């Protein structure tokens, strides 16, 4: 489903699916005995164990997919989990949108935290605020993605020659994003900085420690980027709810404030469904339009 077994989402999906296999093996080794009541009972057990509504929802989705495979293999005649319907949970935690002055502050202060992730934190902040990239996309971003003459960033399939790993975006994630001159200018300066430090490689965020062989040619892990960002937020005494993903929400929200239509925002964000993009517009209801990205 994820196209790439190395993606974090795919690893999470498979981890939860293994748990479902273990449950079925212990409680229902003969799938022909599995009923809708058994599946509903498991869902109630998860809810009573304080699993989040989204975890329960994902658990049911993966159970459906798994038992569909069993039906195809002739292990069971029909899928009892397909008749169960759960209402999609509401998001209770509001997304944190960074205010323009906070964005300017973070862009400036990130330059003082080059001691982490091979000097890549300022780059990560700008890829988030100027292009709305996901942390995973930041980790795999190569210099060739950015066209300095056209001011555009092209999200595309990437291979790490050092490790042989390949990152394949989902169909809707492969997209072209127009970017401000500020990003193009910073990337050019960052490239020269990395060359002076002997950190320069194919990725904008070179991965691994400097003592690791071939680190310059490896991509950085998204967890390392997020960890470095959290440390900066703490060091600067900022709202601890601000995450690296807040940059993505801020980027899209500011474009919406500037009048960009939701269909275009969907393309820029790389969302498969427009309702996902619409979730970014809740912050606009009581606010007036602003002129483009204000940072």
Structural summary, described in words:
- The chain has 295 residues and is mainly alpha-helical.
- It is built from 11 helices and 5 strands.
- It has a 3-stranded antiparallel beta sheet with strand order 1-2-5, with no helix packed on it. It has a two-stranded antiparallel ribbon with strand order 3-4.
- A hairpin with a 4-residue loop joins strand 1 and strand 2 (152-154).
- Helix 2 runs antiparallel to helix 3, helix 5 runs antiparallel to helix 7 and helix 5 (121-131) runs parallel beside helix 9 (244-257).
Tell me, rounded to a whole number, the average pLDDT.
Answer: 90
Structural class: mainly alpha
One letter per element, helices H and strands E, the order comes to: HHHHHHEEEEEHHHHH
Looking across the biggest beta sheet, what order are the strands in?
1-2-5
So how many helices? 11
Query: What is the helical fraction, as a range of percent?
Result: 40-55%
Number of strands: 5
Q: From the alpha-carbon coordinates, what is the Rg to the nearest angstrom?
A: 22 Å
Shape: globular
Low-confidence stretches: none
Distance between the termini: 37 Å
Largest sheet geometry: 3 strands, antiparallel
Give the strand content.
under 5%
Explain briefly what this protein structure is.
With 295 residues, the chain is mainly alpha-helical. Helices cover 46% and strands 4% of the residues.
């Amino acid at each position: 489903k994820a196209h790439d077994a190395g993606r974090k989402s795919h690893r999470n999906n498979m981890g939860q699916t293994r748990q479902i296999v273990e449950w079925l093996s212990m409680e229902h080794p003969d799938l022909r005995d599995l009923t809708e009541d058994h599946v509903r009972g498991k869902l109630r057990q998860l809810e009573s164990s304080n699993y989040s509504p989204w975890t329960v929802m994902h658990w049911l989705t993966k159970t459906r997919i798994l038992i569909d495979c069993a039906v195809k293999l002739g292990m069971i005649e029909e899928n009892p989990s397909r008749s169960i319907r759960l209402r999609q949970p509401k998001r209770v935690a509001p997304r944190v949108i960074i205010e323009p002055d906070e964005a300017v502050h973070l862009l400036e202060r990130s330059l003082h935290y080059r001691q982490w992730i091979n000097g890549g934190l300022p780059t990560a902040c700008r890829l988030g605020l100027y292009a709305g990239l996901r942390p995973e996309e930041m980790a795999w971003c190569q210099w060739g993605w950015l066209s300095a003459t056209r001011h555009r960033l092209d999200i595309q399939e990437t291979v790490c020659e050092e490790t042989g790993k390949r990152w394949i975006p989902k169909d809707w994630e492969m997209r072209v994003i127009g970017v401000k001159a500020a990003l193009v200018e910073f990337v050019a300066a960052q490239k020269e900085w990395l060359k002076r430090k002997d950190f320069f490689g194919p990725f904008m965020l070179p991965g691994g420690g400097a003592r690791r062989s071939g680190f310059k040619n490896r991509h950085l892990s998204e967890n390392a980027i997020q960890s470095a960002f959290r440390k900066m937020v703490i060091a600067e005494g900022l709202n601890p709810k601000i995450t690296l993903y807040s940059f993505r929400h801020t980027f899209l929200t500011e474009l919406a404030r500037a009048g960009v239509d939701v269909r275009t925002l969907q393309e820029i964000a790389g969302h498969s469904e427009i309702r996902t993009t619409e979730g970014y517009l809740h912050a606009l209801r009581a606010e007036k339009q602003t002129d483009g990205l204000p940072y």
